Amino acid sequence: MRAAHTDIWPIMTDDIYNVQTVADGPSGSIPVTADMLRNAPSGDIFGLGQDAAMGKHFGGKVQNEFLIVSTQGGMRGPNGENIASGLHIGHWELGLVSQAAANQFKKRDASPFYVAVSDPCDGRTQGTPGMMDSLAYRNAAATTMGHLMRSLPKRKGVMGVATCDKGVPATLMALAGEHELPTIFVPGGVSLPTKPAPHLGKLHEHGVTAGNAQSIGTQYAQGVITLEQAGEIGCKACGTPGGGCQFLGTAATSQVVGEALGLSLPHSALTPSGQPIWLDMGERSADALVEMDKKGIKTKDILTDDAIHNAMVVHAAFGGSTNLLLHIPAIAHAAGLRRPTRADWEDINRKTPRLVDVLPNNPAFSTVHAFMAGGVPEVMLHLRDNYPGLLKLNAMTVTGKTLGENLNEWEKSERREKLRALLQERDHIDPNDVICPPAIAKKKGLTSTMTFPDGNLAPEGSVIKSTAIDKSMVHDGIYRHRGRARVFANEDDAMAAIKATHPDRIPPIKAGDVLILMGYGPMGMGMPETYQVTKALKESAFCKDVALLTDGRFSGVSTGQCIGHIGPEALAGGPVGKIKNGDIIDITIDCGKLSGRIDFIGADPDHLVSPNKGAEILARRPTNPDVKPHPDLPADVRRWGIEQSVCGGSWGGCVVDAPTIAELLTLGAAEKTRLEMAQAAGNKRAIG
C-alpha cells in the first residue's frame, strides 16, 4: 500500500519490504533419462526445467509438444472485464479459444505451449501515420512468428489463431513456412452487428456496423447525422466484444481463404466469436492437429498449387476483399509454391460466379449470416455441383480427408441442417438469399467481383471491385467515365477536398472529377489503405459521379468507382505519378467481361489524343515532384518497400524473397568492385 508521497520514493507500508530472496522451487523432478543426459541437446533438458518452473506436472514422462501462436492483445479479467484495452476487438477474445484448444491438447496427453504476436487495427490507424506500418507489419509478424515456432525445437505441430486484416495473413504465411510439420489455423471469428437502428438514419436501418461507423466524420460534416447520433453510432460499432468486422472485408475474407486452403476445419471461418460453437471449433482443431501428427500429414501435403487455386476460386465466389491479391501470393511464396499472376486472377474470376451476398454489397446481411447459411463449405458445395472441375476436390485438408470427402460429409451433416434452419426460423432470413444457388445468384444480378483494368496509366495492371460501382452508372454492363484529374499526393488534402473544409485553399471535389491519389504504393507510403477517402466519397452527394485512382490499396469494405493497386507505383516511375491537375482521364470497365482500361487522353478536352499517344506524352513527363517517400515513413518500412519492389512488387504479394535479394546484393557488390578497380586504374594512368 502507498502512503503519502514525499519524493521520488513514496513512503510505503512495511509489507512491501518483506522481500523473499530464496525459494524451495517446484517439488518432484523432470523426466530425464540417462540417454537424454548423455546425448540430447542441453536446450531439451533446460526447457523441461523451465516447464517445471511454470507449474507443469510431467507424470513421469515427456509429452508431445504443440505450439499455439495467436495474435491476442489486451488484458481481460476473469469475467471479461477490461483491465487494459487491446488495439481492437479482433484480438480481444482470442485467449478464450486458445485456452479451449490448450485444454484439449492436455486431454490428448499432449503438452501445449502458447505465445502471442499481437496485431494492429487498420480501422484505428485510418488516416494516421500508423497506417504506413500496416502491410509491412504482415511480413514482420510472419517472420517473428516463424522465429517463435522454431524456438520450440521439439514441437510436433503448430496452431495459429488470428482474426483480423493483417494478423490472419501473417499467421497463414508463418504456418505455410512450416513445410515439414502439421499446422492448423483457427479463425478468430466475427463480431455481431447491432440491432436495427433506424433512428440513426437510413444507413443504419439494418444495424450499426464497424464499416458504417468509420464514416461518421463525413456523415456529420455533410449534415447527414447530428453530433448526438454520431456519438451513439460510434459506440455501437461492434455488437459483441470479439471477432472481426461484420462485413466481408479483409479480416473475414482472410478467414475464408484460410479455410479454402484446407488449413482450417470445415465451417470454421466467420464463426461468431466468444460463443460455444466457436470454443468447440478450438477444441476440435486441437484434436485435428494431434491426429495430423499421428498420421504424418504435413503442411506441404495441404498447401499445394491446388490449394492456392481453391483459395482463389472461393475468394471469387465470396466476392472478397481486393487485399487478398497481396496475401494469397504471399502465402504461396511462404509455402514455396508458384505465386499466382494477374492473368491467373483474371482467369479464375471470369470462370467463378459470385454466390455470396453480404456486406458491403448487401447491407441486410452480415458475415455471421454467411456462417449460419453454411459458410465456406456451402459455397464450395454449389461450385462442386454446378461447375464441375472448378474446384480441385482431391486437395488434402487438416481433417486428414480430401476436400471432396469433406464436402460429401457437409452435405448430409446435422450441423448444416440445423444452422440453416435456425437462420430461417429465428432471423427470418432465407439461407439461399445469403449464399445463393447459381440460379438465384443470376436472378439477383450477382456478378463476379473483380476486374483488372490496364491502359496507359496501369501498364502492370490495377484492380476494381466492379460489383461496387454504382449501378446507375453502369449501362449495358459497362461503366464509362471521362473527367478531369484532381491530383493529390496527400490524403489529408484529398479529404479536405471531399469534405470541402478548406474551399479557399483546396477547391472541393465536384461531379465528374477523377480523384488521383498518387505516391501511396509500398515505396512511398508502405501501401496504406485509403478507406477514409473511399468511404468519404461514398457518403458524398456526388459520389457516383467521381472516380478514384491510386497506387495504394483499399479496405475490403470499400465501395464505389475506386481503382487501386495501379502498377507500377508512382515512386517507381509509374505513369500514374505523372498526371497533372486538369488532365483528361478516360475509364471503361466492362463488368460482364471483367475487362477495362484507364487512360490519359490529353490535357486539352478540345484536342484529345489516343491512348498510345497519351502513353508517349507521359513517357516524356517527369514524375510529380510531390511524389516522394512520406517524411514520417519509418526507416524499416521504407527498406521493406524497396526490397519488395525488386521481388515482384504488389502483384507478387509484397514479399521479400531472400534468393532475389542475395543475387542483387552479389551483383551490386561485383559492380561496385568493378567500378572501384576502373577508378583505381584511371587514377594510375593519370599519375603515370
What would a concise description of this structure say?
By secondary structure, the chain is α/β, with parallel strands linked by helices. Helices cover 40% and strands 11% of the residues. The strands form 3 sheets. Strands 7, 8, 9, 10, 11, 12, 13, 14 and 15 form a 9-stranded mixed β-sheet that branches. A 4-stranded parallel β-sheet has the order 4-1-5-6, sandwiched between helices. Strands 2-3 form a two-stranded antiparallel ribbon.
Secondary structure elements and their pairing?
Layout: H1 34-39, H2 42-53, E1 64-70, E2 75-76, E3 82-84, H3 94-107, E4 110-116, H4 134-150, E5 155-162, H5 167-176, E6 183-187, H6 210-213, H7 216-221, H8 227-235, H9 250-260, H10 276-295, H11 299-302, H12 305-318, H13 324-334, H14 342-351, H15 367-372, H16 375-386, H17 403-411, H18 414-427, H19 431-434, H20 438-444, E7 450-451, E8 461-465, E9 474-475, E10 478-488, H21 491-499, E11 514-517, H22 522-525, H23 531-538, E12 547-550, E13 562-567, E14 584-590, E15 595-600, H24 611-620, H25 635-645, H26 658-687
Parallel strand pairs: 1-4, 1-5, 5-6, 10-11, 11-12, 12-13
Antiparallel strand pairs: 2-3, 7-8, 8-13, 9-10, 10-14, 14-15
